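User: Hey, quick favor. My workstation is busy. Could you predict this chain's structure for me?
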Amino acid sequence: MNRALTTPEPPSVKPERIAGLYAITPDEPDADVMARKVREALAGGAGALQYRNKSANEALRRAQAATLLGLCRTAGVPLIINDDLELALAIGADGVHLGREDADLAAARAKLGKKKLLGASCYDRLDLALSASEHGADYVAFGSAFPSSTKPAAVRAPLALYGEAKARIDLPVVAIGGITHENAHEVIEAGADAVAVISALFDAPDVKAAALRFRQCFGKRA
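Assistant: No problem, here it is.
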């Protein structure tokens, strides 16, 4: 009896370290538009993608996340879900990123296992990063690095914090908040391993070109 051949699903992606351009999706209700923009960002060299859509309902979030997971797996790039451990587990995403009030990091690590990524928002506080490191985080994020249109009221993280964190924690350090092609070099020179970008990437008229420019900010490290 003939049996249809099936293509095995690509394995989950967990890079050795988060680095370079860390793309974060905008609040885009159109699934096709989001998929197109993400495809362009991946083609331009984004090293990680975080699915974040604060305006979507549960059904749309799950549909968009599942679509983006397929795109990321094809590109060999990890898909990380923002603030929703259950969604990450449900679709088999490559990890989750949690804020201070989202979930307990140790509990999240226990549910994720060792093969998935766990990121933690640490705002302007080194103590939160030290705690995140102790509780199983794979990377820590500080911000807002600069004034941010996405979170205009966000606390500002001083540039010195990135270097201080690098000296104290053996984890990748991500800068987020108001990062553009013009100021990315400031956080990179201060010690950031990656820059998390929403508006300057996904609002660009050419998303692929914008992603390439961010990659170039890291020189040979990208």
